[in-house]
Amino acid sequence: MNDELMPIYVASRASIPERGEMWRNFRAQGIPITSSWIDEDGQGQTEDFGELWERIAHEIAQSVALVLYAETSDFPLKGAFIEAGMALGMNKRIVVCLPDVTLDNRSFRPIGSWVKHPNVSFIPDIAEAVQWATNPAF
Question: pTM for the complete prediction?
Answer without folding.
Answer: 0.93
